[in-house]
Amino acid sequence: MTTNFQVRQASVHDLETLVPLFDAYRQFYEQPSDPALARHFLSERFAHHESVILLAQSSDQGLGFTQLYPLFSSTRAVRTYLLNDLFVAPEARRLGVARRLLEEAANTARALGSAGLSLSTAHSNVRAQALYESLGWQHEQEFREYSLSL
Q1: I want to staple 5 with a disulfide (CB 3.0 to 4.6 A). Which of 10, 58, 74, 124 is the partner?
Q2: How far apart, in whole angstroms, are the C-alpha atoms of residue 5 and residue 148?
Q3: What is residue 134's predicted lDDT score, i.e. its pLDDT?
């Protein structure tokens, strides 16, 4: 595996590269493999301009991706982005791909006028937490996160 790769904003023309990565990401979170669903979901995000997807790619293959969703802070009256998805193919791990994706996510959000980025990770994901903190991400102490399944 090469350490020579680029990270750039993906477009609908990158679906063939993104679909297997996105499908593997879903499988990592214990969802069944469904490339057609992955293609449809990503196609919808591109068609409706609902996210920004960054792709890490070597000359011959996709190595990983991150997906940013726009949010707004009403109290601060600013745009922010949720870094919802971050995935690196198993064979590309420990090559700096996740770090580069996170750095480019910050650069992209900044260029889009965002006041910040947020993300959630499992309490047990200590390796990812160390990476986030090494890049200046702060562990949220003030707010507790909740979810409601519908």
Answers
A1: 58
A2: 39
A3: 94
Structure tokens at 99: 């770090």
**What are the backbone angles phi and psi of residue 109, rounded to the nearest 5°?**
-60, -40
* Ranges 1-10, 66-75, 122-131, most confident: 66-75
Q: What is the pTM of this model?
A: 0.92
Residues 6+ apart with CB under 8 A from 109: 68, 80, 81, 116, 117
Give me the count of residues in the chain.
Answer: 150
Q: How far apart are CA 114 and CA 110, in angstroms?
A: 5
Q: Contact at 8 Å (CB) between 25 and 85?
A: yes
pLDDT > 70: percent of the chain: 98
Start-end of H helices in 8-94: 15-28, 35-47
Beta bridge partners, 72, equal 79
Pair 42, 51: CB distance under 8 Å: no
The whole-number pLDDT of residue 145 equals 83
Beta bridge partners of 70: 81
